[in-house]
Amino acid sequence: MARRFATHERREVAALDGIWDFTFLGEADPDAVEVDRIEFDALMAVPGCFDASPAYAGRRGLAAYRIRTDVEAGRQRLVFDGVQHWCRVFWDGELIREHAGGFSRFTAETEADAGTAEIVVLVDNRFDERSPLHMEHFDWYAYGGISRSVELHRLGPVRVEGLRIATASTADRRVSVRIDYAADAPASVPLEIECDGRAVLTETVALDTAGSLDRVLELPWAASWSPEHPNLITVSVRLGEDDLRERFGLREVRTEGARITLNGEPVTLLGVNRHEAHPQFGHTQPEALLVNDVQQLKDLGCNFVRGSHYPLDPLFLDLCDEAGILVWCESIGWQYPVEHLTDPAFIDAQLEHIGEMVAASQNHPSIILWGILNECPSWSDEGHPVYERLLGRLRELDPDRLVTYASINAHDDKCLDLVDVVGANTYPGWYYGDLPDIPGELDRISAHVDALGFADKPLIISEIGAGAVPGWNDSHGSLWTEDYQARHLDTVVGHLLDGQDRISGLAIWVLGDFKTTELRRMALTRPRGVNDKGLIDEYRRPKQAYRVVQGHFRKERSPRAEQA
Ligand code: ADA
């Protein structure tokens, strides 16, 4: 996977990114496809989204990707960082994995003979029961393809399967490490752990065939991680012939009354929502684009970004770790109907997806909040047990971070008892209401959340904004003009930063414009087929509102510098 550091030194890892053979099979039923008879008649970039490429733009159906690679005999593991949104993986014609969900890492394994292996991936971007997590009505265009990196790992008899570094209590410079492992047979092997190149632990361990090792590391020299000082620590775990490297930061996230605290200090979250979409690359995020986005987040004065509405590119998270940007990372979801939410197949798929999200991202110090189910029926009686189960799973997997979700209607929500932080989405002055009403609406939300009995929980406005067609203005400052959007966000941010202290976080909707679903429901409210509430357009060109928000955020984050 494309990261800012090599995740393995000892294990042999080959990047399979590049140009793969490709063919579009359209309406074909994946069960009826004979994999060894597929005729590949085109080429496709991996990572890439085939339906964002000119030849297959907007096509929905089955596609096949193929690559051939030389391997030595032995156990091989393919690591996919994201395939949109359903796939089957074949190794020399044999099915080795099926996966649904897009946006999350999964693996496929096989015992291989020496020689040239042929890997075929059937990828389907249709909306059906194979993909219970994807729905056509989502307010984003669900691109299809092998959208993130692919690697091939050669596995030995002992494997480091995962690493979790718990930095819950960092004052004493001690961290707990859990090393998950697998072994072909019980074994006794050396375990060595290094942090920033210093040996911190060496011992011999007796392994079963699978299990985990829990250790405490003392790092007296290590400095804390914070947005102002994003100090990172690289840890290398070597177990027998295998290894795994990770990066983490010493920091504690908690709530104290209605404030979120970072390393014991209250923090106000100032940021934006961000989709991973681009007109030319779909959900694939070329490195230059990620660097661009992080530069613009910094330039805006943000200390916070909400990943809407699915797990984020691993490289983006690395860059947020380095830039000191705090992250809300959430599982995939957008206004699922009640019936969908109560379908057992859906819940199982969400639980698996949440597990994959946490396993892939749990050591990023930038992530302070885990989220689920954007704008889903948390207002319904049926919703409560589902939210309880999914948020409960997050707490079980990671007790050291805060959990939340973005409520579509905080006035009438039935699941706020389950969160650490209340997230409220609201669109005053856009779909409903008038511009002058914005401060009133924000105050009403706070009062309502408090009246429901949650005055002691931090409250974040997790979405608020207005559309603007890029470059469009008129002398009235009407809806859809850049002028309207700029005045709207000036009012929003101005009100939130001007003396009120109930709302302690803001994620403006949205950093950049992005293509939405082509369903008619969106047509009247999304000119150009684009959700255009971005501070920048889909090619990252700033709109008028960008400077307005930047002015507020920068002033708030460095008041002394401004006064000087
Ligand atoms: C919702 C939703 C966003 C987007 C937004 C809008 O709040 O969570 O994904 O659809 O509305 O633009 O209306």
TrEMBL record:
Pfam families in UniProt: Glyco_hydro_2_C (PF02836)
Specify the Glycoside hydrolase family 2 catalytic domain's residue ranges. 255-550
Transmembrane intervals:
none
Write down the InterPro entries for this protein, in alphabetical order: Beta-gal/glucu_dom_sf, Galactose-bd-like_sf, GH, GH2_Domain-Containing, Glyco_hydro_2, Glyco_hydro_2_cat
- Mind telling me which PANTHER family this protein's record contains? BETA-GALACTOSIDASE, BETA-MANNOSIDASE
Q: What is the official name of this protein in its record?
A: Glycoside hydrolase family 2 catalytic domain-containing protein
Q: What organism does the record attribute this protein to?
A: Glycomyces niveus
